[in-house]
Write a structure and sequence with these properties.
The protein is α/β, with parallel strands linked by helices. 23% of the residues lie in helices and 32% in strands. It has 8 helices and 20 strands. The strands form 4 sheets. It has an 8-stranded mixed sheet, with helices on both faces. Strands 1-5-6-4-3-2 form a 6-stranded mixed sheet. It is globular and about 70 Å long. It starts with 16 loop residues before the first strand and ends with a strand.
């Protein structure tokens, strides 16, 4: 017969509250904790490393639990009062680090990037996340999509939920932001895949860099870098790392509406070439308009992997800004087969970047330079720009 000490403690259920000590930050905006009885992993939002919290279980994945810190028993010195009244457990899911002082937010993001590089690519690299924009981390977002609610209200979704939280003022929305409002049905359709038809409406974005000022036509509901400072900052960083020469051949992959291609084309001059490859038909058509005055630039509409497979190139330099899932092994193989002297990779997800760092290493390219920018203050997201060169 089992003694009381040998009987396993019952598995916590959704809604149960656990006293936990928060461990290290993890990719995704939560900290890692373990239950005392069984050592079961719990991913806890709204907590900070080292804190003792009361956490309410929100989800059981089978392998681990998810929970929200609903009460802080021992607070970290990096904890602050969230500036937004909609931030916190059960509220808006857009900002997951509002309870953290901005310098500490950047340190935590740097830790995540370093950990992902070490774990997924075997690369040890000290990372510094550089501040961008206002000192308070607010009013930076250039694109906002709300969900329509009754009585002319709008809202944003709760974390990992279809529930909508009514919001009167989102503190990360820029005063000049392009705002769209959709129904829940519109949201479902938007997630089905890329659009092939013409954009319903366009807006004009002006970007001023040390390499000049240009305007871009962008679909109001299409992709554009969300931080108001991001287009300038990323263009300048890409140009600095690429160090282009007149007459060089460049591939701009996942080119969007031609933001990078326009400036890359200026750098290589009319005797060089820039091929902008974009899979979204509407963005690609806008790219043709935006690049009409750049003699070196041409546009290929189609999936990047297929364009590379069919022989787009050659290339002295490759620039790529893939979606959150990263470029993946096949695209990396195609890129390195072109033997570019440099690859400049813009990444919005550190895990995907780290996996691709490993794929580049398999093909004989090493990570030469890595810069990280806090282009998503108050959230766990971070933008990186990496330079790969032949090993």
């Amino acid at each position: 017969m089992s003694t009381p000490e040998q009987v396993d403690a019952p598995r916590p259920q959704v809604g149960d509250r656990l006293e936990l000590v928060a461990g290290p930050i993890a990719h995704g905006g939560h900290v890692v904790a373990r239950t005392g009885e069984s050592g079961l992993v719990v991913f806890v939002r709204h907590a900070l490393p080292g804190e003792r919290v009361l956490a309410e279980v929100t989800e059981d994945d089978g392998r681990f639990l998810r929970a929200d810190a609903v009460e802080v028993l021992d607070a970290s010195p990096d904890r602050v009062e969230p500036p937004c009244p909609y931030a916190g457990p059960g509220a808006c899911g857009g900002c997951d680090l509002q309870h953290v002082a901005l310098p500490a937010q950047r340190r935590l993001k740097a830790d995540v990037v370093s950990e992902q590089l070490s774990r997924l690519a075997g690369v040890e690299r000290e990372v510094v996340v550089e501040p961008v924009g206002r000192d308070d981390g607010l009013r930076w977002r250039s694109r906002m999509q709300y969900v329509a609610l009754p009585e002319d209200q709008v809202g944003l979704r709760a974390h990992r939920s279809h529930d909508v939280v009514a919001v009167e003022d989102c503190l990360i929305q820029s005063p000049e932001a392009v705002v769209t409002v959709s129904t829940t049905a519109d949201d479902r359709r938007a997630g089905a895949g890329s659009r092939s038809g013409p954009p319903a409406a366009t807006v004009t974005e002006t970007v001023t860099t040390y390499a000049g000022t240009r305007t871009f036509e962008v679909a109001a509901d299409g992709f554009w870098q969300p931080h108001v400072e991001a287009p300038r900052l990323l263009v300048e960083t890409v140009l600095e790392l690429a160090a282009l020469r007149l007459g060089e051949r460049v591939l701009d992959l996942y080119a969007g509406v031609g933001l990078f291609a326009a400036y890359l084309g200026q750098e290589v001059g009319p005797e060089g070439s820039v091929v902008a490859v974009e899979g979204d038909g509407a963005a690609s058509r806008l790219s043709r308009r935006n690049l009409a005055d750049v003699p070196a630039a041409s546009v290929v509409t189609g999936r990047v992997d297929r364009a590379l497979h069919h022989g787009v190139g050659p290339a002295d330099v490759v620039v790529l800004d893939p979606p959150r899932v990263g470029a993946k092994r096949q695209v990396v193989r195609h890129i390195t087969a072109l033997t570019p002297r440099a690859v400049v990779y813009v990444a919005c997800d550190p895990a995907a970047l780290a996996r691709d760092v490993g794929y580049f290493a398999e093909q004989g390219y090493r990570l030469e330079t890595l810069r990280a920018f806090d282009l998503f203050p108050m959230t766990h997201h971070v933008e990186c720009v990496a330079l790969f060169v032949p090993a």
